[in-house]
Give the backbone structure.
Amino acid sequence: MDYLRRSIQPLLLEYLLPNKVVVLLGPRRVGKTVLIRQILSELTEPVLLLNGEDLN
């Protein structure tokens, strides 16, 4: 599926550094998860993705 490239995406890519944490906050249903999954699909490095709603 094709998605719009968001203006914040290059900025997020700049902040994705080894052993660092990036937190993306915003209102519900604006596409935060879609954006993160799109960025992560382009990376080759291993990542840990945590969801604040996951109680485990």
